[in-house]
């Protein structure tokens, strides 16, 4: 059975992918508008031949995103599991119940 956080991890990876792609495209547009050739390191390599010029950097970025996501999940888990969070939720439910009761008190059916 899959963990509940798996779909969020996939969404986070998709967002990281979209941001990397936007960065590459904006850099290419910048160099095109400036009339300069893109630096040699800006290429993605030839994927069909299996050679990726920036493979190590991409791998490191992927691990940074993964580590960032794991740290964020750990921190959020700690917040959600704290007694203060549970008490806050209970107070919010109590306030909501009281406000709904006051709103509908002495109303004709």
Automatic annotation (TrEMBL):
Keywords: Membrane, Transmembrane, Transmembrane helix. It is a multi-pass membrane protein. Residues 36-58 are annotated as: Disordered. It comes from the Eukaryota. The keyword Transmembrane applies. It is found in: Membrane. This is Uncharacterized protein.
